[in-house]
Structure formats: structure tokens, C-alpha cells
């Protein structure tokens, strides 16, 4: 019973975050300098007809509170509005670009997690201090280097000099490698540090001593016992991971000439296509909430102690 | 309408800018093609900087989309190298003596790539569509402002009737917005305003694939046989197909070119040019854009620029050559007029009219009453500092125009004690400053083929972006007569008078540089050229690739 209540509370919190994000984006639209119609028109064609259309579609002639509630109602119904710059529904614009970004994000996240696991397991403990120091240095470098630079360096060497991968295009998996690696490296850098710290802490726990004293092999101790304990703090980073992926995708898609949401977002921001910006902000918040709520609910399943707290 | 849209145009036109190493070819067709004789066949990949907002030519608003538009669409007229209008889908045109109607005869045997024949009904369908409320409001309100009626006299003859003489209607007929779209597309296209594979024209190529965010692919139009006289060949396009890939980062475009992943790129900034010029397998070409030069417009509606002497002093306080050199190395072309030096309407006699003479600037300011200086070295009058504000809208700042502004700022401070305050803001804030008249300097350039169209917006008292706020009957009259005069010599005379007024007499602007476009290409590619008059990269029709 308490478990259901805890789950409900977390779902509720997720909805509140979503509502706050949508409201903040909406307030930003209203607070932008100039008339709201001006802001929505952005760089699009600006005529009395289009202005009239915007006023009707956004109901700008009604009281502010009605407009706001109507905006929320439309969001709930999945109506993301219309881009006057592109002359198309926002849902359509985003819909056709979401697949490439998802592909990139999943590939990068998978690669990042895999790399982090390998690095952490190889360098945890105090077996090879030199390797550990070298690895820490590289991780720090990866975390602190902008993805833009990583992308350009990878392209210059692997694509432009040695021609191993195409810069962009629909050449299938080959064109996905460099963008995914570019995004995966900073993720791997940070996750590896967190994982290694976790493993190190776990290795100091009494149960490890017990395991060792039972004669369990060191590798098994590491993989079966210590790593499992280190995974929880890493899962906590899921939300952060998502932020890196979305922010990174904007830059990586730009550098590599890949289609995707990042491109849509960048174009929308630079050309002041407010309906698209609003939709992207709300959508990002929604994904963030879903990822974090899912992580929280996973804890509840994994760790019985949390259900009571 | 115009302010937003025209700024978009201007900025889009300039996006690539600048540059180019001294000594590279500026001619449109090199005497000897490294690629040898033209040959048919093969495909090319071209990396472009900008993805078009729309592929429908009627909705065209980005100079960087022109090279794509003309692959699939064609207009009734076009410009030759001398800036003269010549036939394209129309074989000729006749203006009525009163200038109130134009009769065009259409080429025979032209078909849209969906099989629809091209005839007077098609032309009428296009123009009617353009005037439909909400479809292309900018075109209807500006370019077709004086159009009264369009009439299909017979299948090969169209007549346009005007409410007032307007030679700019011919510029419209040569513009992407005046390009002919299949009437079937106009009726049935899934998303007409965004364009796409189902919005077709009569051009030498057919758009057969569009992957948003990634690339456009065109295949040869197998039935094409109506090239304009400005093309270097006739009949089918040489290439079987061409792919345009969107690569927004210049370093990536150039890298893709040097590694042979693409054969052509446009938009090569100064910093990347040594990579191209230092590579024997590549060639760099550039051309100045037409339209209006990048200039600072002085707001004459209030102090201090309501005083002619202060405007003159500001111009004298800037050594434009030195400033351009420090910002763009030796790659920018100095402008002396609001009109680009590549335009047929350019008046060469305005050159050298002011000289970056600091002593003169100081004398002028002394005379204007700004005789004392404050502790920071800025000039003061009645306890007020000589401050002028330049408001730049961030999305439109290209070609390092923010850096250019800093260089001008330093120059006017050092040589004359003028305080130029530069603020880089979002577009809403910029528009608000313009509406509230809280600025003294406005920066702009436009890429119209006919500079008259740009000047109507910028300098007419009722112009959509008249940010000098000049309200001078002489200037209005010159602009109106420029729009109504058909004779090219008389017309050039009118605009020469106008430039004298604006630059020499009234010092309304400080022209800075003439925007340019660049193409870097593999030497295996032949037929690289720029569109005459517009000065932007031409369509792929004349391109070929050697074996």
C-alpha cells in the first residue's frame, strides 16, 4: 500500500514539474519584448491576415487567464500549435525529426554506458594505480572538452584525413558512428568516475571482505558484488545524462549535418519561431520527467527501504 | 510587412560572406576550365550552408536558396551579365507607351515536369495564386502592389495591367517569387507553402528526394530543352543528378571538400580560405552580390544626427579601409554607396566623396557645437555626451558584423571623440528600439536583383525600413521616378541623382562593404558560375564533372 502511495507521489511530482515547465515557457513568450503577436510571427511573413490568424488561433483577444488555460488544455490534448515561419503544424515539424535524434541519443547513451562500465571495472580498486591515474586524466579531459571540439577533431582525423566515416548523410550506420562517439565520450567520462567511486566504496564494505574470505575470485567480487552497488548512484545520473544528450545533440547535429531535433531547436531559436521553441521546451521537460520518474520508480522496486521512507 | 522579412532577406544574403583571398578569380567563367570540355553524366554533391525554410519559390525569402530554386523552377525573364533583362520562359515583352500594361509572349513547347503544359493559363494561375490572401502576402503587398489584372489573351500571350507605371514588375517576373509553378501543384500539393517533391516547375532538374535537416536530391529533367540565353549551353543538364547536403559549420564544409566527400561548397569564410587556395585540387571563386551594400543608416529624426555636420563628421571619423582590413583581412570589398558596386545602377562618381579625414571630422564637430570634451575624451555639448546607439539584432549579425561594429566604435572614439554604443540584442528588443525611435544608427544590407527595390524600402518616406526616418520629397520623387522609368539610361541617371542626394548632399549613410558569395570546388568540376546580376551561386544546370 505504501509502495503505491510512494509511486503516486512521484508521478504527481512529475506532473507538477511538467506544468511548471510549460508555464515558464509560456510566461517567457509573454515577457518577450514587443507585442505577443510580433513574437509569435518571429521572422515569418507578417501581414494583417497572418496576424488575424494568430490572434484567433491563440485567442489573444480573450482575458489572459483564459488564454493560459486554453494553452494548457491544448498541450494536454497534444496540440503543439503552428509554426508561422514554416507554415506547418509544430507536431509535424517535430515528428519528422524525432527519429534521427532518438537513434543518435540511444546509440550515444548505449555506447557511453558501455565505455564507462569497461573503464570503471578496469580501473577500480588499487590493482593498477598508473592505469587509474591515466584514466582519470582522460576522463577529466573528455568531460571538460566541448562536444563541438570533440566532433571537429574526430571528423578531421577519421573522416577528412583517413576517410573512414562519412561526415553526414543517410549512409546508414557508418554516418552514425562519429556523432554517437562524440556524444558518448563526455558521458563515458563522467559515468566512469561515478561508477569507479561506487565500486571503490563497495570494495571497502564488510560484505566484500566476507566474499573474499570465502575465496571468491577478485573478478567475481568486482562484477557480481561491488559493481551492483555502484550502479545505483549511476542510475541517479539518468536525468543528467538526458540533459547532456539533448544539449549535445543540438551541437552534434549541427557539426555533422545530421537531421534531428537539435537542428529544429537551433533554427527555431535563431529565427524566433516561438511556437516551435515552446513545444521543444515542453517536450524536453516531459522527457526529463518521464526519465526521472522512471528512475525513481525503479529504485522503489529495487530497494525496499525506499518504499517506507 | 516589410521590416521583418526584409531583414531576413538581407541577413540571409549576407550569411556567408566575406572574403576571399586577394588574387583569386572573380570572373564568372575562367578562360580555361581545369575540368576540360563539358561532358554529360555523373553526379555531384554540393555542401550548402543554409537549409531553405521553404522549397516553394513563391515563398522565397533567403538569398541562399536561389541556387536551389533555379534547379526546378524558372521565371519568365532573367538578367544577363550587363544587368539587362532577357527572355526565359517568355520570348519577349512589350510595354504600353503609358507604362500601364505589359504584354508577354510565351515560349512554345515547355512543359512542367508533371506533364502540365506551360501556357498563359499557367502564368495566370501563378499570379492569381500569389494574390490570394494569406498565400504570399509579402509578394502581393510589395512586388505586385501596382498590378491591377492579369489576363490570358491567347494560349501564348499574357497581359499584365497596372494601376501605375512600375518597371519593378519586370524584376518580379525575373525573381524566384515570380517563378512558374505547375498549376496542378498549386491545386494539389500536400503542403504547398513548404514546397517539396510534389511542387514542380519547368526547370532542368526535378527534386526527387528531400530529407529535412540533411539533404536535397535532384535528378535531371529528361525533357528539358528551354535554357535561358544566359546559360552556357542548351538542352539537357550535364549532370545526371546532384545532391545538396546541409552542412552548417564552415570548417566541416571545407573538410568535406578537401577529403573529397563533396565536390562543391558555398560560404567559405576568410579563416578557411587558405585551406582551399593552398590545395591544387581545389579552386575558389567569388562574386559580389547585387542589391544594397552593407551600410550604417543615420537616424535623422533627432539629435545628434539631425545635424548634417555630425553625420559628415561620423563618416570622416572612420577610415573604412583600415577598419575592413583589420576585421576581414584583405577579403572585403569596400562600398562607397548604398548600392552594391556590382549593380548596373551603381554611380561610380560617389567614390572618394569622404575620406576618413579625422581633422575634418573634428572641425565639423566643433562647428556643430560639440566643441568640448569630457574626462573620457568624448565630445560634449550642453553637458550631454555625443553618444549614438547602434542596435544590432543578434540573429542577423553575420560576417562578424559585431566585430566590425567594435572596430568602427574604436575608430570614431579615437579620431573624433564620438561615443558609439553598440548593443547586440534579440530581435524583439531591436524592433522595439526601432519603433520607439531609440537608436541613432541602423545597419542593413539587402540582396535584391534590382537595387531600386531595396532603396524603396530603405529611403522612401513611406518605406518599410526607412530607419534614417528621412522624409524628403526630392528623394521620394527620385525613387518613384526610378520605379516608373523603363529606359535603362534614364533610369541609371535617376539613381545616380539619388545616390548624390543620399551620399554626397545629405550624408544619410555610411556605406561599409559589398557583400559577396564564394564557391570552393574541386577542379574536376566545370561550369561553376554565379547568377548574373544577383551575384549568388547559379543553379546546377551548367555544371559538369570530368571523368
UniProtKB/TrEMBL annotation, chain A:
Signal peptide per UniProt: none
InterPro entries per the UniProt record, alphabetical: BPD_transp_1_N, MetI-like, MetI-like_sf
Ranges for domain ABC transmembrane type-1: 98-299
UniProt keyword Acyltransferase, yes or no: no
Main location: membrane
GO terms assigned for molecular function: dipeptide transmembrane transporter activity
Membrane topology per record: Multi-pass membrane protein
GO cellular component: plasma membrane
Keywords, ordered alphabetically: Cell membrane, Membrane, Transmembrane, Transmembrane helix, Transport
Cell location: Cell membrane
Transmembrane segments: 12-32, 102-125, 137-160, 172-192, 230-256, 276-302
CDD domains listed in its UniProt record: TM_PBP2
Family: Belongs to the binding-protein-dependent transport system permease family.
Protein name: Peptide/nickel transport system permease protein
Automatic annotation (TrEMBL), chain B:
Record keyword Nucleotide-binding present: no
Signal peptide coordinates: none
Name of the protein this chain belongs to: Peptide/nickel transport system substrate-binding protein
SUPFAM superfamilies, sorted: Periplasmic binding protein-like II
GO biological process: peptide transport
UniProt xrefs under Pfam families: SBP_bac_5
GO molecular function annotation: peptide transmembrane transporter activity
Domain (Solute-binding protein family) ranges: 84-461
GO cellular component, one term: cell envelope
Organism listed in the record: Micromonospora violae
Lineage, highest ranks first: Bacteria, Bacillati, Actinomycetota, Actinomycetes, Micromonosporales
Family membership noted in the UniProt record: Belongs to the bacterial solute-binding protein 5 family.
